[in-house]
Amino acid sequence: MRLCLILGDQLSPTLxxxxxxxxxxxxxxxxxxxxxxxxxxxxxxxxxxxxxxMRHFAAELSDKEFNVHYVKYDDPNNTGSLLGxxxxxxxxxxxxxxxxxxxxxxxxQIELAGWSAELNLTxxxxxxxxxxxxxxEFAKWAKGRKQLRMEYFYREMRRKYSxxxxxxxxxxxxxxxxxxxxxPPKSGLDVPDTYRAQSDDITQEVMALVEAxxxxxxxxxxxxHFAVTREQALDALDQFITKRLKLFGDYQxxxxxxxxxxxxxxxxxxxxxxxxxxxxxxxRAQAAYHKGxxxxxxxxxxxxxxxxxxxxxxGIYWLKMPDYKSANFLEAKRPLPDFYWTADTQMNCMRQCIxxxxxxxxxxxxxxxxxxxxxxxxxxxxxxxxxxxxxxxxADAYEWVELPNVTGMILFADGGQLASKPYAASGAYINKMxxxxxxxxxxxxxxxxxxxxxxxxxxxxxxxxxxGKLRGNPRMGFMYKTLDRMDDEKRQAIQDDSNRxxxxxxxxxxx
Length: 511
Ligand code: FAD
Ligand code: DLZ
Ligand code: SF4
Prior knowledge:
This protein is mainly alpha-helical. The chain has helices spanning 34-38, 44-63, 82-92, 106-113, 115-119, 135-142, 150-160, 201-213, 230-243, 245-248, 268-273, 278-291, 296-320, 339-342, 348-360, 365-378, 383-393, 399-410, 427-433, 454-465, 467-470, 477-485, 488-506; strands at 2-5, 27-31, 67-71, 97-101, 122-126, 165-166, 169-170. It has three domains: 2-126, HUPs (Rossmann fold), CATH 3.40.50.620; 135-192 and 244-319, Serine Threonine Protein Phosphatase 5, Tetratricopeptide repeat, CATH 1.25.40.80; 339-506, DNA Cyclobutane Dipyrimidine Photolyase, subunit A, domain 3 (Orthogonal Bundle). The chain is built from 23 helices and seven strands. The site of flavin-adenine dinucleotide has 27 residues, from helix 11, helix 13, helix 16 and helix 18.
């Protein structure tokens, strides 16, 4: 008998470990374990989502006549670890081989490599073929290139999958329509609500379990409305394609007070746990373009996120691990301020994004990048602490996608392996792309002094602090020239404001 272990982010009917499984003779194991639920203290909603989706997937496999052994978190015999649960089945059954699809995180890949010796059994690890570019293909593409840039990788992927192509060239004559995207928000936008699934008995049982076992984890458990089956996830995708895709491009970078979902798709949760596959998302968006229900700038922009960015960051992860995890090019070491947990800050943009993260286990890309991430970068926060935060607060977070976005994209801690320059910005950017500043105690147009937006002086302080490491970056030349032109008085004001601000954070005072 073969034992097939299916992990919580492997909820795909086409999973490689399921392909040649014999429903009569083989056994499937799925288990809710302490080690996976607490290796970081995941948001309560994320745990409820993963457990409920796992239970629904197990029920669907049973309906297809597979033998499924499902271990609930509160089963008194639950050993609390994946290996412990596999060993328990092996001790009770005539298991000849353990089969598992390769895990998404490096730490588990290393752990699994030791299982054969631990169990004295063959452990077969099958490739995860749910991505559009394998780690080997990415490594081949990367080999010999001086710089790895998403845009060139994305073009190859467009060609490979023949997406938005007109013979050999891109439809519309351009690969990228970002110049038409990224409009500031305008008032009176009627943003459609996100998908809201009804909780069934399974979800309600899981919610009670999460409340009882993870009371000290970050985040609000209620209300819970994520899709937890493939059918529901497909409905959520359809809702995006019909209601929000057409304005996805225009308002991709826009932020509006109390509008956490904007025109984004909210499908990352489902893609990353396997309920949706990336090609079907790309194809549905492409079909909307051909049907004339969404414009090219929106469809291309959305497809680039999935066919481009998602595959690119995964490629970087497997190419650069394990060193990538300890990268700290800028030698940043300030502890994560407490307001990342409490949202108790006078900076309205941070308060909004953290509050929404706490409520929804979700924030859209520009909130993660240009508010929460931008602050972490210019305040010089410790990459380990920032990575830990991002990995636990978002329901779509797994290390393969979280780490390159944090270490590479926001913190520039990899020294530019992923992004060509740090995404640092002053309050002017946030003021342009959101209406947050209107409800803030600070003023985005004031550069120094107690009422000044902290992003304004921290931005220049960041450039000054990292002069030795960033001045040589050709894309930073203009900013350093501006810094060089500042007189001594201005420089002193920046330093005084930054010192005062850091002193207050370090003393846990409200900033
Ligand atoms: P949309 O904006 O609708 O985009 C569609 C899809 O494109 C997403 O669902 C996602 O699968 C993909 N995508 C878009 N941008 C990226 C990107 N930069 N990297 C990888 N995939 C992308 N994404 C995660 O899936 N998990 C994470 O843990 C995660 N952490 C992030 C941390 C930081 C600091 C930043 C800046 C970005 C992070 N992202 C992460 C990328 C992106 O912010 C989320 O994928 C997106 O916000 C999810 O919401 P959505 O489904 O509405 O995405
Ligand atoms: C995220 C998660 C959580 C919270 N719990 C479990 C679990 O109890 N059992 C399980 O098999 N998987 C879980 N997961 C998903 C895993 O953490 C994920 O498979 C690995 O991080 C590899 O990507
Ligand atoms: Fe954020 Fe500054 Fe605007 Fe306040 S003024 S919301 S701190 S950007």
